[in-house]
Amino acid sequence: MVHSNAKPYQCKICRRATFKSSQNLKHHGQTHSEVRPHECPDCGPSFKRGSTLKRHRQVEH
């Protein structure tokens, strides 16, 4: 079952998204939150995910 394609973790908010691990479900949950803890130190906008901030900095700075 280790290599199963089963996705037993379902988002309780959007119900569309399913995931193989609880960690991936937790990561997805950030999309439904208004919390934006990752702020650009150069120009100020904030982002929900660190990866989005990283992409912003690569493109903008």
UniProtKB/TrEMBL annotation:
Stretches with biased composition (Basic and acidic residues): 31-41
SUPFAM superfamilies with a match to the protein in the record: beta-beta-alpha zinc fingers
Organism expressing this protein natively: Chytriomyces confervae
Pfam family, one: zf-C2H2
Subcellular location: Nucleus
This protein's record includes keyword Zinc: yes
GO-annotated molecular function: DNA-binding transcription factor activity, RNA polymerase II-specific; RNA polymerase II cis-regulatory region sequence-specific DNA binding; zinc ion binding
Protein name, UniProt field: C2H2-type domain-containing protein
Domain C2H2-type, chain residue ranges per copy: 9-37, 38-61
Keywords: Metal-binding, Nucleus, Repeat, Zinc, Zinc-finger
GO terms under cellular component: nucleus
Segments of this protein annotated with the region Disordered: 22-61
Predominant place of localization: nucleus
Highest taxon of the lineage: Eukaryota
Biased composition (Basic residues): 51-61
